[in-house]
Amino acid sequence: MFTIIIDGYNFIFNSYFKAGFKSDELQKLRDGTINFLSKYYNVKRNKVIVVFDGYNTDEPCESKYFRQNIEVIYSKKDEKADDVIVRLAKAADNSVIVSNDNDIKRRASGANCSCMEVEEFRRLAETIISGENADGGACGGYILNAEEGEEDGTSGRRAGGGKKGNPRRLSKKERIKIKKIRKI
Q1: What is the Cα–Cα distance from 30 to 9, expressed in whole angstroms?
Q2: Residue-wise pLDDT tens digits, 87-115
Q3: Which long-range contacts (C-beta less than 8 Å, at least 24 apart) are formed by 167-175?
Q4: Rounded (10°) CA dihedral 76, 80, 85, 88
């Protein structure tokens, strides 16, 4: 199963505060985020986990619940959502982390997961929800054709002993990321 792990407050602050929302409307923004992700889930049926910080609370353990087919997790006291996200990513076989937090990206790079920027995922999800691009064309600025990343048969060493391979081919990390984006 494909899992999408979302840094909840990072998603909210990068999506809504650019539109002029205020921090006192945080519960409405959480609800709006869960509604948006639920619409995505209804179309694609990928498992979606949203992790929010709960380290300022007195809760001794994580609180998990399902709302509109979205798993919502609040971290426990003295634990940041970043730690929960990295732990979930390492436990999941095939996952994508949605966050702009470079620390999460760096810590999760050892796990079998890819990372996406919030804006990139939001654009992709809006496209999927609206029903456009169902054939797998260009998603999030990437061209997702079958020819993507294939070599043209010109491998081998050059006379100067420089790098070999196709210079237009994406790196292995980028090709894996695109493969996972196709599944989203």
Answers
A1: 8
A2: 999 888 888 999 999 999 888 877 778 88
A3: 175/148, 175/149
A4: -40
